[in-house]
């Protein structure tokens, strides 16, 4: 079925630039804010009520609507659970499903499916600027089974996403508790990072030694692939130059300076990353010390350059709050235990997401029955 037959409305949300309003109560959600199928409000533009009214006069977003990015990049889709303060931003299209023929959650999963994303990319190719035209979006074909089957499919996939969301919330709570624990134990005494840790500055392999096929070892040039704790494997190198060991802290030395992740395995670090390891074995404590000192990184983001950066000597001299010697063992044990909880929750999320992504194309194609998918979701922990 064509997408315009599955929707009551498909509205192009291309707008002229509106003045920014840091105090505005409304958000214009463009493609930079559509990340991992969610709205990243930190990347959305704050706008005034007047701008919100202007940008939504053709169609006021409502819960159950979808936003589809049609440029830079093409394809990300977000289901709006509550759209009271959201205006579609530039380079997006607002979709309002027709409840008589399409379930909004099913439509979200159908558009997110790898086959649909690939088809959208094909439609966007051939233009100077990689983008989707609205007529192409309207005529886009999707498999739409009977409405009860759509709802059943969405229920199975939604259960997996709900469990992922619950795990993420628990991980965030553990993360907040860990940050508060470190803050409560800080003595006020400062030591340089060079005194607390050994540091390996990254160095990038040649471009011809990089690949996305999985050959060699994972390579990280900067924060692009950073996650809540560990980066996602995307680029690999067959000729690593500088390595970080499993458990090392990966510190961004280029904008945004000071962002941190943990190496889940031996990885190659490029020029935008340094590998850091505690001299005393208090790796969890050092990880949270680095995260806590946002003010220590601020000077390197505002040195007059277009992009912030920090060199080797500057990184060694960054000063961090310390924990009293007699409390260091206790704090490390507590933080390590919390990190273990977070790691377990994130690992379960990877399993759940893998199950969801495996079930999605099979359910959409009809190769897998909903009953069998329910059993697979239950086995995965949903």
Structure commentary:
About 40% of the residues lie in helices and about 20% in strands. The strands form six sheets. It has a five-stranded mixed sheet with strand order 12-14-13-18-15, with no helix packed on it. The chain is built from twelve helices and 20 strands. The mean pLDDT is about 90. It is an alpha+beta fold.
Let me know the number of strands. Answer: 20
On the 0 to 100 scale, the average pLDDT is: 91
- Describe the oligomeric state of these chains in a short phrase: single chain
What is the name of the CATH topology of the largest domain?
Adenine-n6-DNA-methyltransferase TaqI, Chain A, domain 2
CATH class of the largest domain: Alpha Beta
Rg over alpha carbons: 23 Å
Q: Report the CATH architecture of the largest domain.
A: Alpha-Beta Complex
Overall 3D geometry? globular
Main sheet overview: 5 strands, mixed
Distance between the termini: 31 Å
Number of helices: 12
The CATH homologous superfamily of the largest domain is named: DNA methylase specificity domains
Low-confidence stretches: none
Instruction: Give the DSSP E fraction (strand runs of 2 or more residues).
Output: 15-25%
Question: Spatial order of the strands in the main sheet?
Answer: 12-14-13-18-15
**Total domain modules:** 2
Secondary structure topology:
Layout: H1 3-6, E1 7-12, E2 26-29, E3 34-35, E4 38-39, E5 45-47, H2 49-55, E6 66-70, E7 74-79, E8 86-88, E9 92-97, H3 104-112, H4 114-124, H5 134-138, H6 147-185, E10 186-192, H7 193-196, E11 197-201, E12 210-211, E13 217-220, E14 236-237, E15 243-244, E16 249-252, E17 260-262, E18 267-269, E19 273-278, H8 283-292, H9 294-301, H10 312-317, E20 319-323, H11 328-365, H12 370-380
Parallel strand pairs: 2-8, 13-18
Antiparallel strand pairs: 1-9, 2-5, 3-4, 6-7, 6-9, 10-20, 11-19, 12-14, 13-14, 15-18, 16-17, 16-19
Helix pairs in contact: 3-6, 6-8, 6-11, 6-12, 11-12
